[in-house]
Write a structure and sequence with these properties.
two-stranded antiparallel sheet, 3 helices
């Protein structure tokens, strides 16, 4: 028995066709507040309009952005974004599971630090390493 993904009661097949009003009812209050205040944030409003325009003309195009706090809308399912992490644009493909999250959640700004063993001079015993 395979469990199907549902976004707060909405089946996977109909998430991409959800209207903004339906999405407002299903999403968190923080996301609702952000989306209701679009007139106060012209940068985010312009970005949403740009994404809609690109989706109509060329949905396969990589949409590069620095706007990490943009909420992933249901109409963006299937699009690919290049989200800047401070150094490079990380590729983020939008799936049903990512709806309602922020773009920056999928483009981490800090990488893993891998340390090797100690070098020469790092410990007291390494001062007496023979040269030959």
């Amino acid at each position: 028995m395979v469990k199907k993904f549902m976004y707060k009661g909405v089946p996977e097949e109909s998430i991409a066709q959800m209207s903004m009003e339906e999405f407002f009812k299903k999403t968190t209050s923080r996301n609702r507040r952000t989306l209701f205040r679009l007139k106060f944030n012209p940068r985010l409003k312009a970005f949403i309009d740009k994404v809609r325009k690109i989706k109509k003309s060329n949905p396969k195009k990589l949409i590069r952005t620095h706007i990490r706090d943009a909420i992933i809308l249901p109409e963006w399912v299937g699009l690919t974004f290049g989200v800047h992490n401070g150094k490079e644009f990380r590729r983020v493909e939008i799936t049903n599971e990512k709806v309602g999250c922020r773009l920056g959640d999928f483009s981490h700004t800090v990488g893993r630090v891998l340390h090797s063993g100690p070098g020469v001079g790092a410990t007291r015993g390494s001062k007496f390493v023979p040269l030959k």
